[in-house]
């Protein structure tokens, strides 16, 4: 019994000494200087915040008066599943963090915001820790917002997420933090990709949710670390969803100071080799190599290189913040172009259907023939020949089989019939927004004019609608 007591005392002393050693190591671990973050992101500058309310109000008015009527009339949202809300128009730039589990996404957010060892910090660890989609926003005090509340608030840009079901809303969480950077940008942390997990096990459509955030993100950080370079089915699906968004993607090789120079070169090459089949672009994506956490770089590593890479990434982030309005206007204009093309196609389907119908025709069989083989009736070629549409902007033909499967062609009117005396024609209004109003609003930002004051010389805003049927 006495020997057992002595053994317990010995083990307890070892445990206590080990904890003391760990505490000493943690206390002695040097922290990295953060001055380059404040300087690059201009967090210490006491300049007055720019008032963009006027230009955002003007942009919202253009959308509601010139784009949304045609969008609703031809049910564009049921084709692309992309509904623009007022909250999305006025929202801050969104930065999305994607990547495998435990590569340092949450730690990177903590580092950029300086949240380490505070009650605001995101939980991190070597195991998969983030199981929710976490949205970090600015607020006067620390506040946690449940996903169901975020989806119910129409003033925020997250109300469309309700369509993914209650199981997903339980995995969505918002955190308001009083931080200066979050006054200008919103961070979204995502669950890590686990290749041996099936989609059904998450309880919600993970890829569809990721696509929703990808479509709205201004900058996408895809984070890797040297131990997780393999590409599985879920990561491959993610890069398919990123297709067409290459300009927003920034690939990050994190925890680079854990490797010696020779091994770092091999890992860098292996990362390119893994991603090459997934990113089908002529110019390879930029890969930022550094270590994004508060501890200082390991000794005998390329600290100057890592610091320059980090500053370069921060400059990209700052550029997105500075170009917030330009990107928002360009996004609305791109959306308007897609709505116009969709309306032209539906109008062409409808016109072809009316031309082919006779008194003895079976309407259902006639339209089925048109939808099954639109090239036989020159649907898409006619749009390219008679309208200013690029063939690279045309949607997939197969998508219209599903679209007309739930929306009978008889529910639509021809574009020529979408006109009124007071409101004008839907098609003319959206074309004026694309060619005049939105470019004029964008140009006023570059020239330093008051963006809230529309240029009525070019747009004709405020004019009394002309009577198209009055003889002059």
TrEMBL record:
Q: Which CDD domains does the entry link to?
A: EHD
- State the signal peptide span: 1-20
Q: Name one GO biological process term.
A: store-operated calcium entry
Its main subcellular localisation, reduced to a broad class, is: other
One annotated GO molecular function is: GTP binding
UniProt keywords (A-Z) are: Glycoprotein, Membrane, Sarcoplasmic reticulum, Signal
Give one Pfam hit by family name: EHD_N
Q: Where in the cell is it found?
A: Sarcoplasmic reticulum lumen; Sarcoplasmic reticulum membrane
The annotated topology with respect to the bilayer is: Peripheral membrane protein
Keyword flag RNA-binding:
no
PANTHER family attached to this UniProt entry: SARCALUMENIN (PTHR43681:SF1), TRANSMEMBRANE GTPASE FZO (PTHR43681)
Q: What is this protein called?
A: Sarcalumenin
């Amino acid at each position: 019994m006495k020997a057992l007591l002595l053994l317990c005392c010995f083990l307890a002393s070892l445990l206590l000494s080990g904890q003391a050693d760990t505490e000493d190591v943690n206390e002695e671990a040097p922290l990295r200087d953060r001055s380059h973050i404040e300087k690059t992101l201009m967090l210490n500058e006491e300049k007055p915040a720019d008032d963009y309310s006027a230009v955002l109000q003007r942009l919202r008015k253009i959308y509601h008066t010139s784009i949304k009527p045609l969008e609703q009339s031809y049910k564009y949202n049921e084709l692309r599943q992309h509904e623009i809300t007022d909250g999305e128009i006025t929202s801050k730039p969104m930065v999305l963090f994607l990547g495998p589990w435990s590569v340092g996404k949450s730690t990177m957010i903590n580092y950029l915001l300086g949240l380490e060892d505070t009650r605001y910090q995101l939980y991190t660890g070597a195991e998969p820790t983030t199981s929710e989609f976490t949205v970090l926003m600015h607020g006067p005090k620390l506040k946690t917002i449940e996903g169901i509340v975020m989806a119910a608030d129409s003033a925020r840009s997250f109300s469309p997420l309700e369509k993914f079901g209650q199981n997903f809303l339980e995995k969505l969480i918002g955190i308001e933090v009083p931080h200066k950077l979050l006054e200008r940008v919103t961070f979204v942390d995502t669950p890590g990709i686990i290749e041996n997990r099936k989609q059904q096990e998450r309880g919600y459509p993970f890829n569809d949710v990721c696509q929703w955030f990808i479509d709205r993100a201004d900058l996408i950080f895809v984070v890797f670390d040297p131990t997780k370079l393999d590409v599985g089915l879920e990561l491959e699906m993610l890069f398919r969803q990123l297709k067409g968004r290459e300009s927003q993607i920034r690939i990050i090789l994190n925890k680079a100071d854990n490797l010696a120079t020779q091994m770092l070169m091999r890992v860098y090459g292996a990362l390119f080799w893994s991603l090459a089949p997934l990113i089908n672009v002529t110019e390879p994506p930029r890969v930022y190599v550094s270590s994004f956490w508060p501890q200082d770089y390991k000794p005998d590593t390329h600290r100057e290189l890592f610091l320059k890479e980090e500053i370069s990434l921060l400059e990209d982030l700052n550029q997105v913040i500075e170009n917030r309005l330009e990107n928002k206007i360009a996004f609305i204009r791109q959306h308007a172009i897609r709505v116009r093309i969709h309306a032209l196609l539906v109008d062409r389907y409808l016109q072809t259907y009316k031309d082919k119908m006779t008194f003895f025709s079976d309407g259902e069989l006639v339209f089925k023939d048109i939808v099954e083989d639109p090239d036989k009736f020159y649907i898409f070629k006619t749009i390219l020949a008679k309208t200013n549409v690029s063939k690279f902007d045309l949607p997939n033909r197969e998508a219209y089989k599903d679209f007309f499967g739930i929306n009978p062609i008889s529910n639509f009117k021809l574009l020529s019939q979408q006109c009124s005396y007071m409101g004008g024609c839907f098609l003319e209004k959206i074309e004026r927004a694309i060619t005049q109003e939105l470019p004029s609003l964008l140009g006023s930002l570059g020239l330093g004019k008051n963006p809230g004051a529309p240029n009525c010389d070019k747009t004709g805003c405020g004019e009394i609608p002309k009577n198209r049927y009055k003889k002059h």
